[in-house]
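Example record

The entry below shows one chain as it appears in the dataset: sequence first, then structure tokens.
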Amino acid sequence: MGDLRSAPLPPVGEDDHVRGPEGAPVVVVYGDYECPFCAALEERLHGLAIRVVFRHFPVKGSHPRAFAAACAAEAAAAQGAFWPMHDALFADQGRLEDPHLWDRAERLGLDLARFDADRRGEACAAQVKADFAGGIRAGVPTTPTLFLDGTRHPGRPDEALWARLANLAAASRV
């Protein structure tokens, strides 16, 4: 088995979910909606002027609701509401069952019948599985794992990485 740090990261493409200022440093995050460390990471990333690419990496063995939550985010994406659903899922990780997913979709103004059909459909599942497979190929061992400048950083970011992100974000605003 080779050095996983040098495993290729799939390039950012049109199927990726991206937010943040154009021209800002890019961080690719592999996350799981049931992972408390992923929620903490997302909260801290919001405070930085960086471009975030989020990819699904549901760890079904320890987070049994993560795959369904990822499919819900993809179903919301089909109606142009990926990031609002993404934020809502991380904001209340204790409520990822169907009634709560429908409630979030309703609060976001989504067509509930379409949302439910999409989240149970093959297209959403295929996108989540594709993200996961890309993460496996890139050597993602856990959630969260983020990539900065092609370097993999698994687990909770340490203060040195946070300082580097903050410095990069500050430099991009100049």
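Notes for this example: The CA atoms of residues 34 and 63 lie 6 Å apart. The chain has one domain: 15-173.
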